[in-house]
Amino acid sequence: MMQVPLLVGSLLEHAEQFFSKKEVISQTHDKLHRFTYGEIGQRTRRLMSTLNELGIKNGDRIGTLAWNHHRHLEIYFAAPGMGAVLHTINIRLSPEDIIYIINHAEDKVLFIDEDILPLIEHIHTHLTTVEAFVVMTDKAELPDSTIQPLYSYEELLSIGDPNYEFAKDIDENQPAGMCYTSATTGKPKGVVYSHRAIVLHSYALGLVDTAAISESDVSMPVVPQFHVNAWGTPFACTWFGSTQVMPGPRFTPKRLAEFIERFKVTITAGVPTIWLGLLKELEQGNYDTSSLRAVLCGGSAAPLGLIKAFEEKHKIPFYHAYGATETTPLVTISRLKSYQQNLSKEEKFAERARQGILVPGLQMKVVGNNGEIEWNGKEMGELLLKGPWIADEYYNDARSDDAFIEGWFHTGDVVTVDEEGTIKIVDRTKDLIKSGGEWISSVEIENAIMAHDAVFEASVVAIPDEKWQERPVACVVLHEGLEEKVTKENILAFLTPHFPKWWLPDDVLFFEEIPKSSVGKFLKRELREQVKARYSPQG
Ligand code: ADP
Q: Residue 406 maps to which CATH number?
């Protein structure tokens, strides 16, 4: 067979050829834009030609600090399309981490949304490699700024060449993108995506038994474009000619609900906290969400109560998926097999609350204390992965040796696997609670608590214990107005039928909010500190 490199630029070329009338609908700070793929293609070509003029060469890193919108999408194709590397930067990280990431990646150009410009003004003297800054704005005038040289995105496009060619002399294994994962300790770690990985991962998103993304979809990625490339959906949706709806900067649950109704969104993707927020909005407003055929939920465990609320109350199909920055990210998705349709309603929900089975193309191995575990749904071990869209190292980072061992990526996630091959994430290795020599899964208790009607969200952490080494404590946020009505005893009584006695939390603390990471996950390190402070208020 022919050896044809799998290249990211070819995904947009395909959309230009076959879906030139299909649209990208994009909310920016000032207005709602509608562009066809024909126009997006030309704008991307213009961008490549001006980047070329700015001196960008094969392999150079192009950083973005931006929300989900059409300009960000254009850079998704322009950077790899000319052989450079798209480096999406998480705008919610600390200024120190952002400085570290930009310098470590050696970004040459930064594309910045106008509302993020003040952040860069604050840190730009620490950036050692950036030669040009480009602000993305709808306004005719460039904002006043201390940053130099500063260009306007639309001005650059206006002088660019709409017929500029996508580079063809690219090796499919060369870097197309990169993203840093927020390590919970130490500096962020960089992951580099090859062209080949992104293209193969896009195929995976189109499979009927995964996300089944197709031309007829209207896709709204809520997961940020700076978080593992919005889970790769912009690449796949462009390739397949889906309509894309980009919700833009600082969106609210209200905007998401309105967009779903107005643009008849069929598929959307995000972390559980987003869906908790949307659920609240759906309960308050009167929205038509009947167009939705799939809500993809990943990034942290989707509580059973959340899945049920979407499916039973709102008739919205809800799919639980699992992945990581190192895995491009799709690894598993939870769908019932044909013969599992015979299960009872509750059994089906229980099955679908697990993270699902491995996407075709990947390999897995689960290793416990005594080697590979048995697939009996009980034994626990660490999930190891291998495959064409699994990273094999961190970018220029000695910590690679701890995670990439003998050809396997060690995820740091502890799982069980049942007879069907369905994995269930029990915890992160570092969050498991060790009580009297046995392991307690914080995630399982959290999910059980979140099934309580009065509970908005819950997180479980370990506190040190003299006798048992560690014991679980539940941190609970109640729905508004229920604070007076629900007690520690209520929560414990609710949990009692579901767990062995020694799994029950020693205490239930009520919070107004659970601290969250930059991508909306429970920040357990911070929560442990807050719990500690509750027990010894004066330090
Ligand atoms: P980080 O959270 O470290 O910034 P990632 O966004 O790459 O980085 O997170 C990947 C991790 O998120 C996985 O290793 C796993 O622990 C967790 N995760 C992702 N999806 C799920 C899921 N569906 N259920 C439980 N945990 C998940």
A: 2.30.38.10
- Answer yes or no: is pLDDT of 250 > 80: yes
Q: What is the pLDDT of residue 271?
A: 92
Q: CA 91, CA 101: separation in Å to the nearest integer?
A: 11
Ligand 1 centroid–CA 329 distance in Å is: 9
Ligand 1 centre to CA of 304 (Å) is: 17
The whole-number pLDDT of residue 76 equals 98
Domains: count for the chain? 3
Contact 308, 455 (CB under 8 A): no
What's the CA gap between 285 and 98, in Å, rounded?
38
45-68 confidence digits (pLDDT tens)? 999 999 999 999 999 999 999 999
* Ligand 1 site, residue 319, Cβ cutoff 6 A: no
Q: d(Cα 342, Cα 309) in Å, to the nearest integer?
A: 22
Shared domain check, 118 and 48: yes
Do 176 and 82 have their domain in common?
yes
The answer to the question of residue 152 being in a domain is: yes
d(CA 366, CA 385): 9
Count of alpha carbons within 13 Å of 500, Cβ hemisphere only? 7
Give first-to-last CA distance, the chain, whole Å.
Answer: 69
Return the pLDDT at 538.
65
Residues forming the active site? 181, 326, 434, 439
Q: Which domain holds residue 377?
A: 361-428
Q: What is the pTM of this model?
A: 0.90
**Contact in structure between 208 and 41 (CB atoms under 8 Å):** no
What b-and-e string marks burial along 485-495, b requiring 16 or more CB atoms within 10 Å of the CB? ebeeeebbebb
